[in-house]
Amino acid sequence: MELGALLPLILLAGVFYFLIIRPQSKRRREFVDMQSRVELGAEVMLTSGIFGTVTGLDEDSMELTIAPGVEIRVHRNVVAKILTPTSGGADDPRLDDPASSDDDAPSDKREENGA
C-alpha cells in the first residue's frame, strides 16, 4: 500500500486517541484519586444518591452513617462525590459563598400575575 492511502487512517487514529481515549483516561484517574482521598468523618454521596458520613474505612470498603443509628457498609468504588472540603479544596470560593445558593431562582409566575 502507498503511504498516501495510509495517512488518512493514521490521522483518524490520532484524532480518535486525542478526542476520546485520552480524556476518558484522565477522568478515570481523577475519579480514582478522588476515591482515595476519602477519610474518616467526610460527608460523601454514593453513586446511588445516598448521602452519609464515613465512620469506618477498610482497604476495599467503608462504613457510612446515613441516619442516626443507621450504618451501612459499601465498597469504596461507589463514592461519587466528596461533599466536605478537603485540604486541597479549602480555597474553592463556591464552598463558602452563601450567594451561590438558589436565592436567584426565578419567582413563581402566578405571584406576579396576581393569581
From TrEMBL:
Keywords: Cell membrane, Membrane, Protein transport, Translocation, Transmembrane, Transmembrane helix, Transport. It is a single-pass membrane protein. Residues 84-115 are annotated as: Disordered. Residues 106-115 have a biased composition (Basic and acidic residues). The chain crosses the membrane at residues 6-21. InterPro entries: Preprotein_translocase_YajC. One of its GO terms (cellular component) is plasma membrane. It is found in: Cell membrane. GO terms for biological process: protein transport. Its main location: membrane. Belongs to the YajC family. NCBIfam families: yajC. This is Preprotein translocase subunit YajC.
